[in-house]
Design goal:
The complex is a heterodimer of chains A (318) and B (288).
Chain A: H1 3-26, H2 29-55, H3 63-80, H4 84-105, H5 112-131, H6 133-136, E1 142-143, E2 148-151, E3 154-157, H7 161-184, H8 186-196, H9 198-203, H10 208-234, E4 236-237, H11 245-257, H12 264-282, H13 288-300, H14 304-312
Antiparallel strand pairs in A: 1-4, 2-3
Helix pairs in contact in A: 1-7, 2-7, 2-10, 2-11, 2-12, 3-4, 3-5, 3-10, 4-10, 7-8, 7-10, 8-10, 11-12, 11-13, 11-14
Chain B: H1 3-35, H2 42-60, H3 63-86, H4 93-114, E1 129-131, E2 136-138, H5 139-161, H6 163-173, H7 175-180, H8 185-211, H9 217-232, H10 237-257, H11 260-277
Helix pairs in contact in B: 1-5, 1-8, 1-9, 1-10, 2-3, 2-4, 2-8, 2-9, 3-8, 5-6, 5-8, 6-8, 9-10, 9-11, 10-11
Chain lengths: 318, 288
């Protein structure tokens, strides 16, 4: 990528982040909360996109990474009395451990096999969460209370809307900028090469297995960060977040926004979360919009929103 | 009960479960083998079969009619999905997976909106007890196992003895060569997708009197079908049967002696490991 393009891209991303930061001043209470939630979930989608959009691996088991972050944080706080900071770290460590294990097990599977193995592992993970329900609370889950951070002697309670919004913003910004940096870096280029043609990449002398493992671990790590943040900000831990629906959501968000575009996950998550919210007010079967959106995209808009924009008007979009 | 009869009950439950599972998974295996696509909506066809059976037998009072209508109706839905969506995206592997995930939610949520969130049983058409020295066993379950076995056998005969079966096998072996020999590959695809859904729907309809019809019952069916089809090797029908017996029996034994959840954890982990170590499963060909 040329220097001018890179400057343009960085400017655009910082502009989007500035817009998100400024939005909290004008949004009414309901949307304020919604956008905070969207940012945490979008961080999850950013992690998913690294694997689908930049490495070409479609996973149907990412919920286990999200849930690993969630349980790592929630369980240590609930049972061992960890603080928010230590709990966050525990979430990251457990996410890393699960991602590394999954990455190793799936190393030699490609295409549909990768998808099915991740789905099976995620299902086993979720069933295990249900099986040990005296520890995890099963599908009822459990609620945490009084979470917050002491920063320079000031108590920041996550239950407070402004703290929640800004914490979500910081996490999302961190994930978005790391993904922008990674995909523009030489390592990111190799991942992209892996997506385009694994055999040729190997022929060029790259250790493709190590690259794949790296991609799965980074993607799982960002997902776990999102899961852990979700627990801290919304004070809830439950097995729903490890269910197959939460593996399909990031796929949907990423595809809708545009796989392989850095801003796609945010756009997709924003649009879909509002869609689902509106539909849930109308019917109990509101997840039908999830199904309809997937089919519409496959048939008529495979590039997604940002991907479509890039194709038509802005070739320079990262 | 002491351990002996307990184990016998577990094996009996396991055998019945294995035959139903084989019938459920057969469609998925057939679709993968011939069309080379992973159908994530497969479990929803099972669920739809159960729901249609509930509607028909409740409205008409005839469970036999329900058993006949459910596969036909669900097969019709599958044919529509094939024509309207899958054919248009050219059966491209990843798009097909996304599309069938979409189909999964459309079918599941449409049932939730019409049938509702209830779990409702159908009265078994025949009721008798088979009395063993230690316990009585539902005769209907044995009938279910028998019906599943007959359908499995019928599918095998159709595949190995009829022209259509020959065309399916030809398409499975080499799609382009089959087309060159005037096999209507497009029509074979649609038919296979419809028949695969129909077989699964038959399994769903058969077990309504035992298990109740519920809009979320498809997920378990999907996962267990995946387990069986992968263990047996994607695309290998014989492998599917053998794996269904192994998985069904061990599932029955672990469920009765320990817990159903534990049985599913073991099965899914086993499958993930088999696929990761040996990409083609126990019998089948490499899945690239």
């Amino acid at each position: 990528m040329s220097g001018e393009r890179r400057g343009l891209a960085l400017g655009l991303h910082l502009g989007v982040l500035a817009l998100l930061a400024a939005l909290q001043l004008v949004l009414p209470a309901f949307h304020h909360g919604m956008v905070a939630r969207v940012m945490v979930l979008a961080a999850y989608a950013v992690g998913y996109n690294l694997l689908l959009g930049y490495t070409g691996l479609m996973s149907l088991g990412h919920a286990m990474f999200f849930a690993a972050g969630m349980y790592g944080t929630g369980l240590t706080i609930q049972h061992w009395g960890f603080g928010a900071g230590a709990g966050f770290l525990a979430g990251i460590v457990s996410g890393l451990a699960v991602a590394a294990a999954v990455g190793l097990v799936t190393l030699r599977t490609a295409g549909p096999a990768f998808l099915i193995v991740t789905m099976m592992l995620a299902q086993a993970f979720n069933l295990a969460a249900l099986y040990f329900n005296d520890v995890t609370g099963g599908d009822q889950g459990f609620i945490l209370s009084g979470l917050g951070l002491d920063l320079f002697g000031v108590r920041l309670a996550f239950a407070h809307p402004a703290v929640k919004y800004n914490a979500a913003f910081v996490v999302f910004a961190g994930c978005l900028l790391s993904s922008l940096w990674l995909t523009g870096s030489p390592a990111g280029r190799v991942l992209l090469a892996l997506k385009e043609n694994e055999e040729r990449t190997r022929l060029l002398g790259y250790n493709t297995l190590r690259c794949r493992l790296f991609a799965v671990v980074v993607s799982g790590l960002l997902s776990a960060v999102a899961g852990s943040t979700y627990t801290l900000l919304f004070s809830y831990v439950g097995s729903t977040f490890g269910s197959i629906l939460y593996s399909i959501y990031p796929l949907l968000w990423t595809l809708l926004g545009g796989a392989g575009t850095t801003l796609g996950p945010l756009v997709g998550t924003l649009v879909m979360t509002y869609f689902v919210d509106i539909a849930s007010a109308i019917t109990t079967g509101y997840l039908i919009v999830v199904g309809a959106a997937l089919i519409v995209m496959v048939l008529w808009a495979p590039a997604g929103i940002v991907g479509g924009i890039r194709k038509r008007w802005a070739r320079w979009l990262p | 009960m002491s351990l002996g009869p307990h184990l016998f009950l577990a094996l009996l439950e396991g055998t019945v479960g294995a035959l139903v599972l084989a019938l459920t998974a057969l469609g998925l295996s057939l679709v993968f083998g011939v069309m080379r696509i992973v159908n994530v909506a497969h479990g929803e066809f099972f669920m739809l079969g159960a729901i249609v059976a509930w509607y028909v037998s409740t409205l008409t009072g005839s469970f036999v009619l329900a058993l006949l209508l459910a596969p036909v109706a669900v097969g019709g839905v599958a044919v529509l999905a094939d024509r309207l969506v899958l054919r248009r995206i050219g059966y491209e592997p990843e798009s097909t997976i996304v599309a069938t995930v979409g189909l999964l939610y459309i079918l599941q949520q449409a049932v939730l909106m019409t049938y509702g969130p209830y779990a409702r049983p159908v009265e078994a058409p025949i009721y008798f007890r088979v009395d063993f020295p230690w316990f009585g066993y539902s005769g209907y379950k044995l009938v279910v196992a028998g019906a599943a076995a007959v359908l499995l056998l019928a599918t095998w005969v159709a595949l190995s003895r009829t022209t259509l079966g020959l065309q399916m096998r030809a398409t499975q072996q080499d799609r382009e060569m089959a087309q060159a020999f005037a096999v209507p590959v497009g029509r074979v695809y649609t038919l296979v997708f419809g028949v695969g859904a129909g077989l699964t729907a038959a399994a769903g309809a058969l077990i309504v009197p035992v298990q109740q019809a519920h809009y979320l019952m498809g997920l378990d069916a999907l996962l267990m079908s995946f387990v069986v089809v992968i263990l047996g090797g994607l695309g290998s029908l014989r492998g599917t049967l053998v794996a269904a017996l192994v998985v069904g029996l061990s599932d029955g034994v672990i469920s009765v002696l320990f817990s159903p959840t534990l049985a599913k954890i073991v099965a899914t982990l086993l499958v993930a490991l088999v696929l990761a170590v040996r990409g083609r499963g126990l019998f089948g060909e490499e899945l690239a």
